[in-house]
Amino acid sequence: MKKFPAFLSIAAGSTLFSVFLFIFLSKVFSGEILLSRYIFRIGEFELRWYSTLILTGFLISYFVARRRAKSEDINIEEFDELIFYGVIAGIVGARLYYVLFNLKYYRNLWDVLKIWEGGLAIHGAVIGAFLTCFLYVRLKKPSFTFLQATDLFTSVLPLGQAIGRWGNFFNYEAFGVPTNLPWKMFVPEPYRPVVYKDYSFFHPTFLYESIWDLLVFFILSVYFKRYGRGHGEVTCLYFVLYSLGRIMIERLRVDSLMIGSVKAAQLLSAVLILLGFIGFLILRSSQELKRVF
């Protein structure tokens, strides 16, 4: 008996999953199915979709990055050590960034520590992880450079972001302004901003960013393998590509962190686009800078 070809099995599985996902989303977006924030509850303990999906995104990204690290002859023990410190710094950075913009909602330290309830900012995570990576390379002198490490990190980060955004989906957060487009998403009244309490359907901006992140991951993966001339280029491209999408999507969101009347994510994204573009041009032409970092 002939074995069923592996690619056909993958194709069949992917098709079935896509059909299921489409049907599920159509019912959630129409309001026929209401989501629960948790997978299961035992007493006071809740296993939440948000934390589960973020962890899933991290683990998948980690194993992809680890495989790429091996192909570059990087010491895996050093790589894992950096990941350990980077994850801690990333979580702390993501939470602090979010809390600093929402201090009025956090009355005590315990509320600040409840990261499983949501409230993490990707820009804070990136800042924390990059600072940790820079310090690690300077202090430990590992088998890889700072830019080599950030390339590995940013080449897989969009994949983790794409998966993690679905945690926002189950939390009914990170959605956009009201809309009547065919793919509009129903949001129950308790999750709607006060100014939009009379509206039922909104832009699923979490989905927009998830799709964009997957596209960025594909572009960076191809560039990482085929076109990069040196370390740092993938990092700069990540800043430019992710930030371009974030600026556009942030225009629609109703829960943005603000700096006065300006959306913080848009302002920081504009800065990262400029830095990424300039950095990319410099790195493509400067071998000396690559050796320094």
Word description of this protein:
There is one protein chain. By secondary structure, this protein is mainly alpha-helical. Helices cover 65% and strands 6% of the residues. It is built from 10 helices and 6 strands, in the order H-E-E-H-H-H-H-H-E-E-H-H-E-E-H-H. The chain has helices at residues 6-30, 49-71, 76-100, 109-113, 122-140, 146-171, 205-226, 233-250, 264-285, 287-292; strands spanning 38-42, 45-48, 185-186, 201-202, 258-259, 262-263. The strands form 3 sheets. It has a two-stranded antiparallel ribbon with strand order 1-2. A two-stranded antiparallel sheet has the order 3-4. A two-stranded antiparallel sheet has the order 5-6. Strand 1 (38-42) and strand 2 (45-48) form a beta hairpin. Helix 8 runs antiparallel to helix 9 (264-285). The longest helix has 26 residues, at 146-171. It is globular, with a radius of gyration of 20 Å. The model has no long low-confidence stretch (mean pLDDT 90).
